[in-house]
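Re: that chain you flagged

S.,

Sorry for the slow reply, it's been a week of failed gels. I finally had a moment to sit down with the sequence you sent. For the record, here it is as I used it:
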Amino acid sequence: MEKHVLSKSSFIRGIQCPKSLYLYKHFYNQRDKTSAEQQALFSRGTNVGLLAQRLFPGGTDASPSSPLKYQESVKLTQKLIDEGTEIIYEAAFIFEKTLVAIDILVKRDNSWYGYEVKSSTRITPTYINDASLQYYVISNCGIDLKDISIININTSYVRQGDLEYDKLFQITSVKNEAEHNLQSIKENIAKLLTIATGHQVPEVKIGLQCFSPYSCDFMGTCWKGIPADSVLHLSGSAKDELFNLYNNGITTVNQIPNDYELPKPLRLQVDSLNINQPIIDKEGIKKFLDGINYPLFFMDFETIMPAVPFYNGTHPYQHIPFQYSIHFKETKNSPLIHYEFLAEAGSDPRKAFIEQLLKHTSIPGDILTYNATFERSVLNNLKKHFPEHADDIDYILYRIKDLIFPFENKLYYHPLMKGSYSIKNVLPALVDQLNYDHLAIGSGSIAMAAFENLQRETDIFKIAETRDALKEYCEMDTLAMVRIFEVLEKSIE
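Prediction finished late last night. Pasting the structure tokens below so you have them in one place:
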């Protein structure tokens, strides 16, 4: 049996960038480290794939004993087919040195049907290309596929009781698209095999392909010569515009002419970088602060967004609040008081969440959040689910003010913000030695994954460690808001 050179993932990688494919095959160890956020996405995809097997129960798993032994998976797949097995999970095939493993292969009425599972809510061109490759390889291995489909998440499904897999998932045939793509698949396999087995790195300049359809994990290699003051690191403008600058010889920020037409946010960023000083609109900040009154609550929520809904009355990818942090100041010079809530794993956290939140915000006073759209959306959903608290939730909504406003509207811009008004960029720019770097959980997406993992965790020490890390992270979010607000107050003194 021939060994494979390309796999489904390396084929898609090569279509995105041939240089990335070559580096993957010859310099694998140079890949950037997989982030915790990316690993959480991989895990989600795996879990959804396993769950989708419930649509076709009783199948036989043809997965290899290790990722390096796919030859045995190919042999097992053929053996199962020869023996008359009608449902195979992870059925593997090789043709033209290209390996594919389809999530579910089903024989029905003497015809074969292939299904590829995605945790996404929509079918992208990349998924079509993925399925087209599988259709090409499997069809050329003697399997007459009557249809090939993509199974993905149906966001209109609302859980009530046990999961209804036929409603949670939606199945869409992509056979017509796959047949249309057969010639291009054949041509691309030939091209990518030549690249993967070659002895020279393809000449590919950095460009939009570094980010689309996926962020490349060789950017640390290809971008290592790009200086910190490169125009490519600017934010607030489309990436193609930044690459136009770069490719026209304007490679660093200080090379951008003063009369060069730029969007206002980008011009502000460039000017601030050139003088290496913050640009502050004191009048605008004063007007913002005049609209905020003590007592003050600094409030932040954390949510999970499970692809497969955990609780009755929820739909896929719905924000489910499980944690909040509040810092409270009665007056400008009062000491900080901290309140927090972190739900117990294993049950719907929303009732306890809203009841505790109402207690901790019962004193009249303005409520500051950072990007209030998020908290408002969560509260409005809670109001629908707990109509008995609707009036009290409306009172919270009425009091919310958005601390992101002066940064989103460029009333205060510091060059260290790097064009972003995310709190993760604003905090270290405004407050020395206060950042998220030391935290075990350092972002909302990692917090989300951590709490989802707690639903299945049984190690009491791991549970305690994770809960402590979640509390520390959420508290840092509201402490950051307090310190940022203090900088704004001092900026107009």
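What I noticed first: The chain has 19 helices and 14 strands.

Talk soon,
D.
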